[in-house]
DNA sequence: CTGGAACCGTACCGTACGGTACACCGCAGT
DNA sequence: ACTGCGGTGTACCGTACGGTACGGTTCCAG
């Protein structure tokens, strides 16, 4: 239907001018939420005409979809060097990805886009939600999963189902933080790096091999080491 | 500003007629999302007049808030008998609450209300989000936290910070399920009871005392257990 | 210089929605 | 029977938004 950016694969790319328009549209969404994202508002903020908006993106929904694919195209992940060596390196890599994940999830545009897609989603149909799951979540899953499997290959980790292990790791890292942020809560003093390290520690205690169950053999006062 | 249901505490109660109106409004929201929740639509679906809507709830936002408090008032939790005895009982209680949590989060009205509040939330201001956090999430937190502390009193669990332990438990139970559901994904064959049992198992492996680290160190079969 | 394509700015249209006003009805209490 | 109250249904208003049309401008090709 729309002239551009219709396919779910979303490998679309846009002209610099269109990128600038999408950028200011994202800014408009971050500030003010969806109700501020009117076609006239986008045109005014981007100094372009509504007619061009409709020519480029076909539709308001097309514009929203383009914003998602554009934003995800901005954060291309590095291929994550797969040749891990030893537990410490693996843990460090996992911790880095975990901290990065937390930072991304708490970012302004990520929250705004997720709010947009979630607000749009209904019972059966979830147009933008599918896009966001494909572009936002699958990359991090593949990266983490590859790292997990490489750890299993080195006999540092022991799990049967990669996807299950990944999802548990995700739960340990993110917990209820994402939904709380989406609902408007602010994570006060929760440092992403600290939470990431704790999550990886807990994950190793759950899925590490015997001699690699984690740095802390006994659990006294582990919940959060801020007491020590 | 609104005539009713303004306080955040939200201990408001409504007349049977108003309850019926709120009920049909919830049905309208579940089916069709927020864009279907117009004042005229609610009035038509509930066979009442728009004037009554504005008299009772003052505002469209007042109606939305009333829907949240009304829905949360419907699912009053039982006080959760605190006198636990032994690991098996504690684990069973935790598993029950966990499974119930998963079922609630996946419920139609819960998803619809969360989508509504999240879609409404913006940078600073999150009116409905606060309501939802207060009414929807705090009850489950207090219940689980009480259970965790009773387990610690019986030396079945070992953790320093109750809130941290609770949040880890929450992460193990829910993982990314909630956000995925909010984004329109359907949890295909994920049985809540099974996931709850696994989560409690993992939680005991993390926070159980030495002789209570789990039902069995190797319990082959379930998705992410060690295959040996 | 001419033609055309792309684009901006603005004006315009239809509709839908939040909110209000009003006529009418049923039902107490006296 | 009269009156006030709470309610329904409908008509109405203002506005805001999605989408379209059109004139004017810039830029490039030939």
UniProtKB/TrEMBL annotation, chains A, B:
Keywords: DNA-binding, Transcription, Transcription regulation. PROSITE patterns: HTH_TETR_2. Gene3D superfamilies: Homeodomain-like (1.10.10.60), Tetracycline Repressor, domain 2 (1.10.357.10). It comes from the Bacteria. Residues 15-75 form the HTH tetR-type domain. It holds the Pfam family TetR_C_7. Signal peptide: none annotated. InterPro entries: Homeodomain-like_sf, HTH-type_TetR-like_transc_reg, HTH_TetR, TetR_C_Proteobacteria. Residues 38-57 bind DNA. The keyword DNA-binding applies. PANTHER family: HTH-TYPE TRANSCRIPTIONAL REGULATOR BETI, HTH-TYPE TRANSCRIPTIONAL REGULATOR RUTR. This is TetR/AcrR family transcriptional regulator. It comes from Kaistia terrae.
């Amino acid at each position: 239907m729309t002239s551009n950016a219709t396919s779910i694969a979303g490998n679309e790319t846009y002209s610099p001018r269109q990128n600038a328009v999408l950028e200011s549209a994202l800014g408009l969404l971050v500030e003010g939420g969806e109700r501020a994202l009117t076609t006239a508002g986008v045109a005014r903020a981007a100094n372009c005409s509504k007619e061009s908006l409709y020519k480029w993106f076909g539709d308001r929904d097309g514009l929203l979809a383009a914003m998602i694919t554009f934003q995800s195209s901005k954060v291309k992940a590095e291929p994550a060097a797969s040749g891990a060596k030893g537990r410490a390196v693996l843990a460090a890599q996992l911790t880095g990805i975990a901290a990065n994940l937390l930072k991304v999830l708490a970012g302004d545009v990520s929250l705004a886009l997720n709010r947009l897609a979630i607000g749009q989603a209904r019972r059966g149909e979830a147009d933008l939600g599918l896009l966001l799951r494909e572009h936002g979540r699958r990359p991090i899953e593949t990266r983490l999963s590859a790292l997990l499997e490489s750890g299993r290959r080195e006999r540092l980790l022991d799990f049967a189902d990669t996807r299950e292990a990944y999802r548990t790791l995700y739960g340990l890292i993110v917990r209820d933080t994402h939904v709380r942020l989406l609902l408007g809560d602010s994570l006060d003093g929760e440092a992403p790096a600290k939470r990431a390290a704790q999550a990886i520690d807990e994950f190793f205690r759950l899925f590490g091999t015997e001699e690699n169950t984690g740095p802390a053999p006994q659990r006294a006062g582990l919940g959060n080491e801020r007491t020590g």
